[in-house]
Write a structure and sequence with these properties.
globular, 2 domains, 17 helices, 2 strands, Na+/H+ antiporter like fold, single chain, mainly alpha, 428 residues, two-stranded antiparallel ribbon
């Protein structure tokens, strides 16, 4: 710890800093926001809940608050998802075919089987278009539960779940782009394509300034917003162009740091206060420059945006979308849409993940981590049924009918809770 003196504000802020540092904190906050939304939507103040999200806001165009959250704030969420996907593909668990095959196969099974289960239940019905809803895994909730279980969960299992959820996110992005897209507006798509090419060009030219990508990315988002493709896809496309290269490696960074510290130590021997202050200022600037150079723009953006996504954007999204009024009581769970989502998440997800995982192992294209037992793998597969964030997002795209959307939300909330509880009990 640097320095021993603490101020009153330190005592006030420290509990919040400790909470934010916990791996499970994002999932906890997301859960709290969801409970608040559900209770609010079923209380005597339910009208205030729904009126709030219908509030009209003009930012260039006029839309209600829920629309700005789902199309605007969630574009930042998808931008971070895109950064995570790119990082995993280039540096993480998905960087080699052999290492990627296990989570890749598991994710494919965890998308195909739940979609098939839902489609089977809702075949020919009014809710048939919602087949993509149970395909997703909520990484914040899943990793939050694993974090709560602590040392009982091997690191290899956490890596597997993370990689699986990221492939899941990639699958969800593709499903949204190809199957939940409105009528295309080609002039807007052309502008979006030009913006995407400019982002690629900036990357190839070695541009590392975040502001350049932010400005072009915002124009891309506006173009996609008016193109018929869902606006959040702009976040993923922008993320894929963010540079991953570093100007100096770790060894060079250590060398710069040692050199600066040596110069600073030498300056401290001076009796001239001006010389000492100048040396301190120079050292801080040099270290700051080295810190920027040793990190890739992708890494810096991911680290800076992740807290905003985990502790602001996702809870706000949950607050705006998890509120569903249960007017029919237990009858809501008998609706084909609710049944399809629940069965897809609670049964389809783990069956698909485990089935395709064992196919990968039996055929020899992948191997189970030595430290992971079959029981732990089963528990992780069950946690994959926590759809929540992405499932709610796809449900909003799948259904214009408020009644169908309400039933989908009932299924998502019920299925996610059931999967979370069972998964926790299996892994405990």
């Amino acid at each position: 710890m640097i320095g021993s003196e603490t101020t009153p504000i330190d005592h006030l802020v420290r509990p919040f800093q400790k909470f934010a540092a916990r791996e499970a904190s994002g999932g906890i906050l997301l859960f709290i926001a969801s409970v608040i939304a559900f209770v609010w939507a079923n209380s005597q103040w339910r009208e205030t809940y729904f009126h709030l999200w219908e509030l009209k806001i003009t930012i260039g165009a006029t839309h209600n608050l829920e629309h700005w959250i789902n199309d605007g704030l969630m574009a930042v969420f998808f931008f971070v998802v895109g950064l995570e996907i790119k990082r995993e593909l280039l540096e993480g668990e998905l960087r080699s075919v052999k290492r990627a095959m296990l989570p890749l196969m598991a994710a494919v099974g965890g998308m195909v089987i739940p979609a098939a289960v839902y489609a089977l239940v809702n075949h020919g019905g009014s809710g048939a278009h919602g087949w993509g809803i149970p395909m997703a895994t909520d990484i914040a909730f899943a990793l939050g539960i694993l974090a709560i279980l602590g040392n009982r969960i091997p690191t290899a299992l956490k890596i597997f779940v993370t990689a699986l959820a990221i492939v899941d996110d990639l699958g969800a992005v593709l499903v949204i782009a190809f199957f939940y897209t409105a009528q295309l507006v080609w002039p807007s798509l052309a502008i979006a394509a030009i913006c995407f090419l400019l982002l690629i060009l900036a990357n190839l030219l070695g541009v590392r300034a975040p502001a350049v990508y932010a400005v072009i990315g915002i124009v891309l988002w506006v173009a996609v917003l008016h193109s018929g493709v869902h606006a959040t896809i702009a976040g993923v496309l922008t993320a894929l162009t963010i540079p991953t290269s570093r100007h100096i490696d770790t060894k060079q960074f250590v060398g710069v740091t040692r050199s600066v510290l040596a110069e600073l130590e030498e300056a401290e021997n001076s009796t001239d206060q001006t010389t000492i202050q100048a040396a301190q200022q120079s050292a801080l600037m040099t270290l700051q420059e080295a810190k920027v150079k040793v990190q890739s723009p992708l890494s810096r953006m991911e680290q800076s945006l992740h807290p905003w996504v985990a502790f602001a954007i996702m809870p706000i999204f949950a607050l705006a979308n998890a509120g569903v009024t249960i007017e029919r009581g237990i009858e809501s769970l008998k609706d084909p849409v609710s049944i399809g989502v629940i069965l897809g998440l609670v049964l389809g997800k783990p069956i698909g993940i485990l089935l395709f995982t064992f196919i990968a192992v039996i055929t020899g294209i992948a191997a189970l981590p030595a430290s992971v037992s079959r029981k732990q793998l089963a528990g992780a597969a069950i946690l994959g049924g926590i759809g929540f964030t992405m499932s709610l997002f796809i449900a909003n795209l799948a259904f214009d009918d408020p009644a169908l959307l309400a039933m989908a939300k009932v299924g998502i909330l019920s299925g996610s809770v059931i999967a979370g509880v069972i998964g926790y009990l299996v892994l405990r």
